[in-house]
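Task: sequence design from structure.
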């Protein structure tokens, strides 16, 4: 048993640093494995290779090992990433057969899976049948509706969550801000940003700033957007400058677009995408003038 524990710890350690090749080699050389060993490797692959994670899950089942709760959560996430609808349904059946359908973590993973597959009625049904609804579960449902373009419904579910006495976490706010941005409700977005600190005691992360940038870009407020990119308490990354560049392209602001492209080129001298966007923008302006 000591060898299994030691080897499993090594598999997990290499998986944590992203070295799946070594983790897999140690796993394959193990004379004995247990359900924890399988779970560790399946979870690692779920973050990097959804299809391989699914193959390992099926192999584990064939070898007679019972999946743990964390394994189901990981493999359902893999199904979501790989758009493996049929496999996800089979795993859902396995969950039900083992009487784990009321487990909150697995339930949240199922809501997320069906939401990403566009099956919102099933996602809502699973949500409603769970005995407890925590912030992770509510966020999974909000994200499901926002992901599928049902933006008013996503915001309505958020309000429903608040009325139920559940406060949002940082991940919830990212989904809500994204829904506000894509739904064209800029005012609501700003309200949620202000309430993060005052009502929810949450700090703005880079992900929240990126959502606000998208909100400003879609509203055509490039001056505010540029001010935010250059003054936020985080070093603007490629995503931030690309968001700014894309907004400039939509509005036709060549001067600001050029500044954004230069910043992106400073980050990666081999990056051609910024100048391709800029070139397309120049061509569009020229065609409009003709």
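Answer:
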């Amino acid at each position: 048993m000591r060898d299994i524990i030691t080897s499993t710890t090594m598999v997990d350690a290499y998986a944590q640093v992203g070295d799946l090749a070594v983790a897999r080699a140690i796993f394959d050389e193990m004379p004995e494995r247990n359900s924890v060993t399988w779970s560790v490797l399946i979870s690692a692959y779920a973050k990097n290779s959804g299809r391989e994670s699914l193959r390992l899950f099926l192999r584990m089942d064939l070898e007679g090992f019972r999946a743990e709760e964390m394994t189901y959560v990981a493999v359902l996430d893999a199904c979501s990433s790989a758009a493996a609808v049929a496999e996800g349904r089979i795993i859902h059946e396995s969950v039900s057969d083992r009487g784990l359908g009321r487990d909150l973590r697995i339930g949240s993973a199922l809501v997320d899976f069906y939401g990403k597959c566009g099956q919102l009625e099933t996602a809502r049904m699973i949500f409603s049948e769970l005995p407890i609804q925590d912030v992770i579960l509510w966020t999974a449902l909000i994200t499901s509706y926002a992901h599928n373009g049902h933006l008013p419904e996503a915001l309505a579910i958020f309000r429903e969550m608040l009325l139920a006495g559940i406060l949002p976490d940082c991940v919830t706010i990212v989904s809500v801000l994204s829904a506000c941005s894509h739904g064209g409700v800029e005012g609501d977005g700003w309200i949620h940003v202000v309430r993060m600190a005052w009502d929810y005691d949450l700090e703005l992360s880079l992900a929240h700033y990126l959502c606000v940038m998208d909100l400003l870009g879609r509203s055509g407020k490039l001056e505010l957007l540029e001010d935010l990119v250059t003054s936020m308490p985080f070093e603007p990354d490629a995503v931030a400058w690309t968001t700014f560049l894309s907004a400039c392209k939509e509005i036709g602001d060549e001067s600001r677009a050029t500044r954004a492209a230069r910043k992106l080129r400073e980050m990666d001298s081999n990056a051609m995408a910024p100048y391709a966007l800029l070139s397309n923008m120049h061509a569009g302006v020229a065609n409009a003038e003709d």
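The CA atoms of residues 237 and 267 lie 8 Å apart.
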